[in-house]
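> example.struct
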């Protein structure tokens, strides 16, 4: 009797002990979480650069993901962000469904499903692509402690970076403030030169010509090695040409019309489309289309001591229309109307890379009316970061892991294809025939 009882207790002890070990293992895994990435190139781990950024970032980070309520999509995003939470436990994230909370999405300027808002110490950064390179770069920018000043010229009817009118750039100025820039207005009649701590001077489509003394002040500003963003429009070439002369550029007559925008459902031909960008630091990794209403074309007038790069170019089915934008519009070469691609944006840089300037033949694309069109906002922020030399933080690896792609030689592909399409079915038929023949003999 006692022997049978001991045998039963022994039989029960083994599964109970196994269950206790499992419970203990689960409890220890919660207390001491450990993970191993056995992929050859660390496909499921963050790079050393990203880990260093997270470990040196003090304070919580909040991420809002604007995506539809789909469990599969949520799971993929959670798996990716879990890599960041492993090194920074105070990184939190939550999902916002734009369809269920349209007011929230509208206030944040969300235009694409899957966009993210990263918040850190009162600053915000918006992303339209979720990968390690872009997310770590955003955290790097948000954690910068120094403040870069952006001065916007005023007093000549310019578009204001703090204005609320449709033609102003106030919404763009808010986005710059969220990313840590200090935006101020500058009147050269009150201040002879921009403040010393100015990282960038913005001249946004003035309506009146600058005085000769002001032009001399701007020339002195450039001679000091300072950075400049100049936005010009197509309606006042006489106002802008003295400013363009400082950078050895000239403005082509007329307004750019683009037949390609009809593919996007835009009926206004005076909206120029840019969809391809050069390999330049200002537009690195940028692949969104951008739209430019009432844009003007630019050309290099004289040789200069700048490194000049055509940064924004229209497509082939565009030209600078010098006539009225009414009825049927056709290009007339006799009136100086040149066919595309036409350059509407030049990037200028000194040989040492320290001084930078950018001239864009359109001020509307960053205005309150058009800022949220296509990729205008993202392009504007990328250009400002380049102008203020904020591109020193582009060292995050973006190369896709090679072990996710299987490359086969043509011979091996043929062998596998014939094997599954011909050899395998024939083997099945032969095997079935042999089995049937053996059964009939029996």
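> example.seq
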């Amino acid at each position: 009797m006692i022997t049978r009882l001991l045998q039963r207790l022994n039989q029960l002890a083994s599964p109970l002990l196994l269950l206790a070990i499992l419970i203990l293992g689960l409890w220890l895994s919660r207390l001491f979480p450990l993970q191993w990435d056995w992929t050859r190139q660390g496909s499921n781990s963050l790079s050393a650069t990203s880990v260093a950024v997270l470990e040196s970032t003090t304070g919580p980070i909040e991420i809002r993901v604007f995506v539809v309520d789909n469990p599969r999509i949520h799971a993929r995003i959670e798996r990716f962000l879990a890599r960041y939470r492993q090194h920074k436990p105070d990184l939190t994230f939550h999902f916002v469904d734009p369809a269920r909370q349209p007011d929230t999405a509208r206030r944040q300027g969300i235009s694409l499903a899957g966009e993210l808002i990263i918040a850190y110490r009162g600053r915000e950064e918006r992303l339209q692509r979720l990968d390690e390179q872009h997310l770590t770069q955003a955290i790097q920018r948000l954690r910068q402690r120094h403040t870069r000043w952006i001065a916007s010229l005023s007093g000549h009817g310019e578009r204001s970076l703090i204005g609320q009118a449709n033609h102003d750039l106030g919404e763009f100025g808010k986005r710059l403030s969220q990313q840590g820039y200090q935006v101020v207005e500058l009147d050269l009649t009150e201040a002879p030169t921009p403040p010393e701590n100015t990282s960038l001077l913005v001249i946004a489509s003035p309506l009146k010509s600058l005085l000769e003394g002001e032009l001399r002040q701007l020339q002195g500003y450039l001679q000091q090695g300072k950075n400049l963003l100049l936005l010009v429009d197509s309606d006042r070439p006489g106002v802008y040409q003295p400013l363009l002369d400082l950078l050895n550029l000239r403005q082509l007559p007329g307004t750019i019309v683009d037949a390609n925008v009809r593919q996007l459902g835009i009926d206004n031909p005076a909206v120029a489309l840019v969809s391809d960008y050069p390999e330049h630091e200002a537009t690195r990794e940028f692949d969104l289309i951008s739209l430019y209403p009432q844009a003007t074309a630019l050309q290099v007038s004289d040789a200069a001591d700048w490194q000049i790069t055509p940064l924004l170019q229209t497509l082939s089915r565009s030209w600078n229309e010098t006539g009225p934008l009414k009825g049927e519009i056709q290009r007339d070469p006799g009136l100086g109307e040149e066919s595309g691609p036409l350059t509407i944006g030049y990037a200028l840089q000194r040989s040492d890379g320290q001084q930078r300037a950018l001239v864009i033949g359109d001020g509307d694309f960053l205005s309150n009316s058009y800022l949220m069109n296509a990729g205008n906002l993202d392009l504007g922020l990328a250009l400002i970061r380049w102008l203020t030399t904020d591109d020193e933080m582009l060292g995050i690896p973006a190369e896709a892991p090679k072990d996710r792609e299987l490359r086969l030689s043509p011979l091996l592909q043929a062998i596998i294809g014939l094997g599954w399409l011909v050899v395998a079915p024939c083997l099945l038929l032969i095997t079935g025939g042999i089995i049937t023949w053996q059964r009939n003999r029996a």
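> remarks
The radius of gyration is 31 Å.
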